[in-house]
Amino acid sequence: GAGVSQSPSNKVTEKGKDVELRCDPISGHTALYWYRQRLGQGLEFLIYFQGNSAPDKSGLPSDRFSAERTGESVSTLTIQRTQQEDSAVYLCASSLGLGSGGDTQYFGPGTRLTVL
Amino acid sequence: GDSVTQMEGPVTLSEEAFLTINCTYTATGYPSLFWYVQYPGEGLQLLLKATKADDKGSNKGFEATYRKETTSFHLEKGSVQVSDSAVYFCALSDRGSGYSTLTFGKGTMLLVSP
């Protein structure tokens, strides 16, 4: 079926505003990941969801960042009181999860966030 | 912790030249290894993967062999094309805790000229 989708594709916001980014994973994928890609840099892991288990939030850079996932479907990443250093491309990925072949992650096109 | 180191770019080649992009890793246990490619203006795409030592991943003329003895996963292509111009990311997946977040290198930009 369809790949991972993300919305919006681009978001420009003012410093101090809250933003919400959305990810629709591939149907049937139990694992979902959020990454951040700053300009000219590799990807930084932010948060990981696996089924109904407690998410791994170890990569979130500050308490302004949070994410939720409804069951094994849509996820939202929320950044409160945005700062200019939050400007980056936010990438979502999904995978089949635990087990053979489950470690291959498929990425969405990303949301480019610009904080003015 | 886990880490991936890849050669800095940009790598600039003429069409039909041989390509090598070096990648070495540090990980506990036995990670899976990946190469992802990001074409201009597009998202990350899985290029190839290898899940155990001596495995060779291949796709679109690209190859990489999982070398546990040298902790390396170098990407090679015998004859590059202009359309191969992109940023290439080496990554590993560590199942140490039963799941598999990806640890990425910083990426290597490849520029191929006609």
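The first strand of chain A starts at residue 5 and ends at 7.
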